[in-house]
Write a structure and sequence with these properties.
The complex is a heterodimer of chains A (394) and B (458). The two termini of chain A are 23 Å apart. Chain A contains twelve helices and twelve strands. Chain A is an alpha/beta fold. With 458 residues, chain B is mostly helical. Chain B folds into three domains: 34 residues; 185 residues, no CATH class; 153 residues, no CATH class. In chain B, a hairpin with a 6-residue loop joins strand 1 and strand 2. In chain B, helix 13 packs across helix 14. Chain B is globular. Classes of the chains: A alpha/beta (394), B mainly alpha (458). Chains A and B meet through helix 4, strand 7, helix 7 and helix 8 of A and helix 18 and helix 22 of B.
Chain lengths: 394, 458
């Protein structure tokens, strides 16, 4: 029996499982089980990956993108005839040190080119003709966690990715403000009074369980977070602030397994070059600050970062110096002990296209399975039903 | 024969959007039958959405011809969809035909559709209205022929040479039979039967394109024949499983998210025998004795629309800026005309997470006191409103006539107030907690009651 299985079994034997989450003493929940955490950074709008990781040796790239193609001289060259968009320069250090993995041609069968549907598919890890109401990380919470705060989205509202059947993640834009809101006398009174009530399995019980779970989780995070003072300097951008908050949560010692943030603006149908470069620069600056910060705090080996977008964009540019919705693209993974480093698989094939779009080679769910199984120590097959093998990067 | 007021609160939380104490008192003089008959609207006057003019069917063509920038065009579409959404919200807030709206919402969710054509979206909604209480078969035919659905489920690309299965699959999986009641071969063959179903882009009328239609023999549900689309619909309708599938969904919607299998079967038989007359089924439900059993009261979770419209109607709230309601729909998880996918909003507990619950508990005091609520933009949409506009929208700018409300509730003690606003009572401890604060006036009491988790139960 592995260590994790042992802990699970012994906690079951002690009856610990039978106590509803919100009644358990918080703060000392088997802290040694795993300190590992995952940070997901979502690029919303469909990032143009071909101008992010550029196939600069491929003539077709320049032929199909007379206005948008980035010249070799303006790129940061990597291996395998690929290059970074210059705006990602700050990430080169992690590429060089083997702490960054770039996977090409990631997508799924029968791709959907609608933002919201494709994002749904990435969030729920469903087939393209299947409609799930829970997210892949929500099902991870359902199967492997006991408290809402084990999945935190640094935002005002919770993404479908973090919604489970039994347990939802927690959306926290500003922990101090949220704590203040929940601690107004009336809210607090209701939560306090309900604590000793017997809650049924019906919807009324569900509402109170959600309230109590929220209230105790927010208390717990607030108390732990209070003593943290992170003076490390981050770029003054939305993503910079969000990642700084996450670094704070990680240092505070809360047992959160999954952090989630999203960055928007990638839907570049027109005048793409400056817009995208600016966004990529914001991304690289924030991520780089985050990693350097965690390294200084001696926390980097516990963290992995995963970056994705709902789709890549068309190979051919459009008439407005932009690109339209496409299919497959890249994902990035960062971590200290990657199993695979640098550029992991073959270059995008610009000749054999699917209706003008890239064909996928790696199903994104095989990367989810890798993250769940090898990084978060979860039973990935229970969470992802797709019949794909883990694609081992982490 | 009079109807007990507690029953009025219960029915109106289901076939309407809650009701004020004063209106409930007025209605209780009527018999249950009269109340329900009055709500199953058969007249078609004034029931449709008319915000988007028919000329907008050419919006795209006109934009292309006039050389409008794509960005500008996207913004135009977005604004029109928002107008359409708000026009429905206004109807929901003011109409007397509440059951018609409730049933339209049911079909809006059942035949979930999302295309960037405001006029076509409006017309699909008007089909749901026209057939709300009529025959499900007729409704199904009209929906299948509607341009919005033909576009959304790719039937425009469903041609003899290259059949597209999208519509065929959802027709059976989501609209009629449910998973497990057809084979993959049925999907392929049904797709062939619907080849050539198309529409005229200039006037939005249905068109059967004979050249694209595959009139060869098909095997559908083990039967062989040169079936066309309507033949398929008739076969689906003659399968009792369809009556069961729809009845079960209607039961969950109006009665209880947890179903009583025996009862659903009986109702499905009734629906089938009555040629899928939806009005008859609804009337049967609301006049059944078991509908008023304790287990069916306050057991369902209000959808965001139920919640927002209910709160607004109960307190006769007037909004200066309807954009607030548009954004609130989104953050609460149900924005009209923007269903998450063809399966519609999952509903029930899915609407509740820590953020939405806290927001629902805070909203009464914000809306009823013209407060502010933070509604940031999350969905990446390049045409979305500018930051300043969103900040501007944070202010509720609502007005509530508290004098009238207090007058209406005059003479009600705290126990009665609980019963006016809640269908399910909180625990004794929580009731005591609220009662213990002697300093509270009636207004504060009401605000506290509608801020309780139980206010989210219907």
């Amino acid at each position: 029996m592995d260590r994790r299985g042992f802990i699970k079994r012994s906690s079951l034997a002690s009856g610990y499982f039978l106590i509803p989450g919100f009644l358990k003493p918080l703060g000392n929940l088997n802290p040694e089980v795993t300190k590992k955490n995952l940070v997901v950074i979502q690029l919303s709008g469909g990032n143009d990956w071909l101008n992010t990781i550029v196939p600069y040796k491929n003539d077709l790239y320049y032929k199909k993108r007379p206005q948008l193609g980035i010249k070799e001289g303006k790129l940061i060259l990597l291996e395998k005839d690929l290059a970074f968009n210059n705006s990602l320069s700050l990430l080169k250090q992690f590429y060089d040190s083997g702490e960054m993995a770039i996977v090409n041609n990631v997508g799924y069968p029968n791709p959907d080119r609608s933002h919201f549907r494709s994002m749904d598919i990435w969030h729920t890890a469903s087939q393209s003709n299947e409609f799930l109401h829970t997210g892949w990380l929500g099902r991870y919470l359902d199967n492997e966690c006991k408290n809402s705060f084990e999945g935190i989205e640094v935002d005002n509202y919770l993404s479908l990715a973090l919604k489970g059947k039994k347990l939802n993640g927690l959306a926290i834009k500003n922990i101090n403000q949220l704590h203040k809101e929940l601690k107004v006398p009336y809210f607090n009174d209701i939560a306090e009074a309900a604590k000793s009530d017997v809650l049924n399995e019906d919807n009324q019980g569900y509402l109170y369980k959600t309230l109590l779970e929220t209230s105790s989780s927010v208390d717990y995070i607030y108390e732990k977070n209070k003593i943290v003072s992170n003076t490390f300097e981050y770029p003054n951008t939305e993503l910079g602030k969000q990642l700084k908050d996450i670094a704070g949560f990680i240092t505070s010692g809360i047992s959160t397994k999954v952090y989630y943030v999203s960055m928007s603006g990638f839907d570049t149908h027109a005048a793409q070059l400056n817009k995208q470069n600016n966004l990529l620069e914001q991304y690289a600056k924030a991520v780089s600050a985050f990693i350097v910060n965690l390294k200084g705090l001696d926390k980097w080996e516990d963290t992995s970062i995963f970056t994705f977008s709902e789709f890549g964009r068309r190979v051919e540019e459009n008439a407005s110096a932009g690109t339209d919705h496409g299919t497959a693209g890249n994902v990035f993974l960062f971590g200290k002990n990657l199993k695979k480093k640098g550029i992991i698989n073959e270059l995008p094939d610009l000749i054999n296209l699917d209706d003008g779009d890239l064909k996928y080679h790696i199903d994104f769910r095989s990367i989810y399975k890798n993250i769940l199984h090898d990084w978060l120590n979860a039973d990935a097959n229970k969470i992802i039903s797709a019949d794909v093998n883990p694609f081992k990067v982490l | 024969m009079a109807t007990p007021i507690s029953q009025i609160f219960h029915i109106y939380s289901r076939l309407g959007f809650s009701i004020s104490y004063a209106n409930a008192k007025l209605l209780s003089a009527k018999s249950l039958n009269d109340i329900i008959n009055g709500l199953i609207v058969t007249s078609t006057t004034g029931i449709y959405l008319t915000e988007i003019g028919k000329e907008d069917i050419l919006l795209k063509k006109d934009a292309m011809e006039s050389g409008m920038a794509p960005k500008e065009y996207q913004k135009l579409i977005k604004d029109k969809l928002q107008q359409l959404n708000i026009s429905w919200i206004k109807k929901l807030l003011s109409t007397e035909n509440v059951l018609l709206e409730k049933q339209t919402l049911f079909w809006h969710n059942h035949f979930a559709c999302r295309v960037r054509h405001p006029y076509l979206m409006q017309e699909l909604n008007n089909i749901h209205r026209k057939f709300a209480f009529g025959s499900f078969r007729d409704l199904l035919v009209e929906v299948s022929k509607s341009p919005a659905m033909l576009i959304y489920l790719n039937n425009q690309q469903n041609k003899k040479a290259h059949p597209n299965e999208n519509f065929a699959r959802e027709l059976m999986e989501l609209f009629t039979l449910g998973r497990g009641n057809y084979t993959e071969q049925d999907v392929q063959e049904v797709a062939r039967a619907f080849t050539g179903w198309s529409f005229n882009k200039d006037d939005g009328s249905f068109e059967f394109k004979e050249k694209q239609h595959d009139d060869g023999e098909k095997t559908i549900f083990t039967r062989k024949g040169n079936f066309g689309g309507e033949d398929v619909i008739n076969m689906i309708i003659s399968n009792k499983q369809t009556a069961y599938f729809i009845t079960k969904k209607i039961y969950k919607y109006y009665v209880n998210e947890t179903i009583n299998e025996e009862r659903v079967k009986q109702l499905a038989d009734f629906y089938y025998q009555n040629q899928y007359n939806t009005g008859a089924l609804i009337k049967k439900i609301f006049t059944s004795k078991w509908f008023y059993d304790a287990e069916n009261i306050g057991c369902n979770i209000k959808s965001p629309i139920d919640y927002l419209v209910g709160l607004s109607r109960q307190f006769s709230i007037t909004y200066n800026k309807y954009n607030v309601l548009f954004n609130l729909q989104r953050v609460l998880g149900q924005q009209l005309f923007y269903p998450p996918n063809v399966a519609g909003w999952p509903g029930g507990k899915n609407y509740i997470d820590s953020t939405t619950l806290v927001l629902r508990m805070k909203l009464p005091s914000l809306i009823l006191n013209n407060g502010q609520v933070d509604i940031p933009d999350k969905i990446d949409d390049p045409d979305d409103q500018k930051k300043e506009e969103i900040l501007e929208n944070k202010k509720m700018e609502t007005s509530v006539n508290w004098t009238t409300i207090l007058e209406e509730n005059k003479g009600l003690d705290l126990d009665k107030l609980f019963k006016v606003y809640l269908l399910k009572m909180p625990s004794q401890k929580i009731i005591e907690k609220i009662k213990s604060d002697q300093s509270l006036g009636v207004k504060e009491m009401i605000l506290k009651i509608v801020s309780l988790p139980e206010y989210n139960l219907a």
